[in-house]
Amino acid sequence: MESHNSSWGTSPAADSPTTAHSSRVARTHPQIKIEPNCLVFPPPHFGRCVQNAISLYNVSKKPCVFKMRSQNPERYVAKPHVAVVAPESAARIFVTLRDMNTLGTKNLPEDTHDRFRISIKLYDPSSVDASLSAKELWNVLQERGARVDHEQDLVSFFTKRDTPVGGLVTFFPPTYIPVTPSQHQKGDAAVAGVASGAPTPPSAGGNAVNGGDAATAKKNASPPSSATGAAARAAAAAGSKKTPVGAASGKGEGRGGGTSGEVGKTKQGGGANKMPALWVGIAVAAMVVVALAVVVGVTLRGRGRGGGSNGRDAAARSRKTDAALSHEAQARLQEEAEEAIRVHAAQEAARLRVQQEEAAAAEQARAWQQEQEKAAEAARAQREQQEAEVRAREAAEAEQARLQQEELAQAQEQQRRREAEEARLAQEAAEEAERVRVAQEAAAEEAARTQQQQQQQDAAQAQQQAEVGEAADMHYEQAQQEEHVSVETQREPAEA
């Protein structure tokens, strides 16, 4: 990541995770998902750039803004490192490892582990200004004290290992990312520029134009001489040689990011538009040379007129001097014109070379863009397939739930009917039992009544029999008494 990305601290060892933990989730949200859970940068780490793609899925109903930070931002370029993700959509973050040659090293040690932290905040779109950029939106939410809804750490590995699930590893040439010169390289370049007498501007157009302006300034400041012409040619040659380097830098910026590339093109265009200034300087230098020659000739002629015969000799010498100066001026002008033509040809060749490099870079950028579009299309197709699978699974689950509910309703209805039938049967049994009880009670009452009647009849019969018995007994007793009386009656006469 670039310099605008903040790092966590100056001590990488303090925050370095162990190799057993590829990611650490500090705070999670059920509707936010980040894939993969780690980054892989297989060697070699020099002579090429290694890029990892991170997919961020927001399936919630609210938009979110994310910010990515790196433990070692000088090694990486992340685009975008701050962005907004719409509701129910996804975004991709491309983390590219620079060519380690630009940082003065080769392969990174296998036990090196850099950590990346992705912080995500959900927000209400009606509470913020829609014209805010992602960075401004993050700062506004930060000022409001909005909490981080999802935070996840990704650890990078620098060994040969399989690409993690959901990851995408791509390789690019080293010119894919612009070279960031170190401080000592900048100092060496400045010293070299001072020693050669040529300026060291930062852009391609500035190099060529400033070189020509330096040569023109030297010609205007002092009379022309072979040393001055050589200095001008050296400055112009230095400017023409620096042009491809600056152009390549602008081209690299164009590949690394759109804004830097446009700046490089603008600077180059400015150098091309200032080409007439070089010819104007050459013409001014030629006029200065001619004027000096005329002044010298007039001075010598004036001295010749004041000296008589010596004046004639002086006039002859003056004419010879004028002729020599005129011949020297013409030769110098011819040399300057040839040098200007050579410089113009070199600059034109450099411009054509820069155009070719820019065309190649644009073609490479288009190819990369097509690859990214293909990857995005593949990711979109995969996401649509996953969504279709999720919808199909949800539909199947809903159908299964509906069937289960229907089965449950049927079971409940059957249970209710069975309970109702059992209640009806129980009620009928109770009623039957009641009827039986009533019948039994009636039968018992009837039996009791019959028994009572029988008892009454038996009692009546017994009483009647008793009465009959008593009557019989009384009759018998009477008969006995009568018989006894009769016997007594009969005995008395006999005794008498």
Automatic annotation (TrEMBL):
The chain crosses the membrane at residues 277-300. Residues 249-272 have a biased composition (Gly residues). Residues 371-400, 414-425, 472-496 have a biased composition (Basic and acidic residues). Residues 1-10 have a biased composition (Polar residues). It comes from the Eukaryota. The keyword Transmembrane applies. It is a single-pass type IV membrane protein. Residues 189-248, 401-413, 449-471 have a biased composition (Low complexity). Its main location: membrane. GO terms for biological process: endoplasmic reticulum membrane organization; endoplasmic reticulum-plasma membrane tethering. Pfam families: Motile_Sperm (PF00635). It comes from Leptomonas pyrrhocoris (Firebug parasite). This is MSP domain-containing protein.
